[in-house]
């Protein structure tokens, strides 16, 4: 059976309000492979929110930080961000945080951007460190936290890790771990339709029916502000709500069995559509 590394998760299906740690800031959660060559709509939105402030680019999820950082540096320069506004952070071990001059690094920061790679690397290297307190300070002061791919997965209370995408419908093909909890009662999955990940997100909802599952396609993002989010980008966002689930075999089935779950509510949203996190429903376009 899939394992959950989270002691205080509530597996009951009573209503749970999804909320951010502080509604003053903005989250931009990207499903991976954001457009870097065409209109660059998502990256433009991140640059716009930085204004004259600093963008801190954290590459700790990546095995190739010295390739990832120059790429984003050039992209943001091309979008009008001065080099002095860009700061690269790559942490290999939590102890490295102690040697950083965090006051100086985060002075004037308006955006913190987590790049892709391995979400477990992000949570294990940065979780619980003083650096994350500074990240949250940016958010609580009205700044923006953005993440793509693995950087998107860590945004929720729980994150999905591991498992082969082709067998994502199998009960034992994935596991979960704690996220960074920028949003509570949320599980985020990325590269969603492109990697056939609906099965593993459904499994996560079966284990945690009070938690809202959000699957984000490549080239697509959700912009979270207060109690709602808006879709931006070329593909879709899928919201799975398990509060009405009437049956699942998730707790009894063996690891190689196909998962069964009944009466899950599904929303599929496209660009400019809005989802109300408090009421768990889409909002019609005006």
From TrEMBL:
One of its GO terms (molecular function) is carboxypeptidase activity. Its EC number is 3.4.15.6. It catalyses: [L-4-(L-arginin-2-N-yl)aspartate](n) + H2O = [L-4-(L-arginin-2-N-yl)aspartate](n-1) + L-4-(L-arginin-2-N-yl)aspartate. The keyword Signal does not apply. It is an enzyme of class 3 (hydrolase). Pfam families: Peptidase_S51. Transmembrane segments: none annotated. Keywords: Carboxypeptidase, Hydrolase, Protease, Serine protease. Exopeptidase that catalyzes the hydrolytic cleavage of multi-L-arginyl-poly-L-aspartic acid (cyanophycin; a water-insoluble reserve polymer) into aspartate-arginine dipeptides. Belongs to the peptidase S51 family. This is Cyanophycinase.
């Amino acid at each position: 059976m899939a394992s959950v590394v989270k002691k205080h998760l509530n597996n009951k299906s009573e209503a749970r309000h999804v909320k951010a740690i502080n509604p003053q800031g903005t989250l931009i959660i990207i499903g991976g492979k954001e457009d870097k060559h065409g209109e660059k709509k998502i990256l433009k939105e991140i640059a716009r929110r930085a204004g004259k402030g600093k963008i801190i680019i954290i590459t700790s999820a990546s095995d190739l930080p010295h390739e990832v950082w120059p790429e984003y540096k050039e992209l943001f320069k091309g979008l009008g961000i001065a080099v002095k506004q860009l700061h690269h952070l790559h942490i290999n071990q939590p102890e490295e945080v102690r040697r950083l001059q965090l006051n100086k690094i985060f002075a004037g920061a308006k955006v913190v951007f987590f790049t892709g790679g391995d979400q477990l690397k992000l949570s294990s290297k940065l979780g619980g460190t003083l650096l994350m307190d500074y990240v949250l300070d940016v958010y609580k002061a009205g700044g923006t936290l953005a993440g793509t791919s693995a950087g998107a997965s860590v945004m929720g209370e729980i994150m999905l890790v591991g498992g082969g995408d082709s067998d994502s419908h199998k009960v034992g093909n994935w596991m979960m771990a704690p996220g960074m909890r920028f949003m509570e009662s949320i599980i985020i999955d990325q590269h969603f339709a492109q990697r056939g990940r609906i099965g593993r997100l459904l499994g996560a909802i079966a284990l945690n029916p009070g938690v809202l599952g959000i699957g984000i396609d490549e080239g697509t993002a959700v912009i979270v502000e207060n109690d709602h989010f808006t879709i931006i980008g070329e593909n879709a966002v899928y919201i799975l709500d398990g509060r009405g689930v009437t049956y699942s075999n998730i707790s009894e089935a063996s690891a190689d069995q196909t998962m069964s779950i009944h009466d899950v509510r599904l929303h599929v949203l496209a660009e400019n559509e809005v989802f109300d996190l408090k009421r768990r429903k889409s909002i019609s376009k005006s």
